[in-house]
What we know:
Quinone Oxidoreductase, Chain A, domain 1
Amino acid sequence: MKAVYVEDAYKVVVKDVKLPEIENNEVLIATKVAGICGSDIHTYKGLHLFRKPPVIIGHEIAGEVVMVGSHVENFKVGDRVTVEPQTGCGKCDSCLTGKVNYCQNRKAPGIKGWYGAMAEYFAAPEETVFKLPDGMTYDQGVLVEPFAVGVHAVRKADIQLGDKVAILGAGPIGLLTVSAAKAAGATTILVTDIMDYALEGAEKMGATHSLNILNKKEWVSEAQTLIGSEFDKVLVAVGVPGIIDNSISLLRKGGKCVTIAMFHGTQTFDIVNLQQGEKEIIGCMTYTREDTLAAIDLLAAGYVNEDALITHKLSYHEAAKGFELVDKKEDSSLKVLVEF
Length: 340
């Protein structure tokens, strides 16, 4: 089968690889569409914490079941599906309490021998596979995984009806987090970025305010002026230097900052501001099954404007072009999909 490899930093190629052999508890999925995620770009640059080249890339997938293992009970050939791309040991306290994302032995595509999803076929354990509702397109289905990230972040932030929320970073995860925050009841949602086209996308996704912060030193006060107050919650979807300190400054006393982005290097912040305002910084790692189910339901109910988010669809033969588009933010790219 054909598979998209990140062979080395900034080098994407298509290779012939052996078709994965499924275990008794697995299904084999014919990939219809796969998404390029921001974390894939970290791998593309050689910066990902644990997914290193050479590797079959990809973990956002929608497709059709073509084979099932002998112990599979809930899926059959022809089912239209997506995948929550993580598994745990199944035995630790984290797994037994539904927090697979905490498991010390967590596996994900492209790690520990599990092929990535950007290939003609993808094997996945039954417990990670979810049927797509009738009427849901594959393009919507491939958004389930990144949308679950936003749903999880909104739950960690405990966003309530009427909350004033800032989302820092208008990449695909940031934009999907806008939809999740709106669904949770946030009535004021401000999004920041340095690209006007990305901020236009944020407004189409439901943001009430947007702010281009390029070359602005006082953008925190400008953001607060735009909404007429401090923020209840701040969700950080970009890992640039100083962003955590900015987030704390945006918050009201008692407010919460949730970190979604993948960070490299050290972040510093004003501990006095944090402590005297009883503000909170909350880590956020992937999602749980509950988040994935909610993401499917919300997508099916029309909470995500996928037309505003998906800007490019390319054949897998053009995957290298897709990675370059996303990395360099060329051609007003947001979510780039690879079709098989």
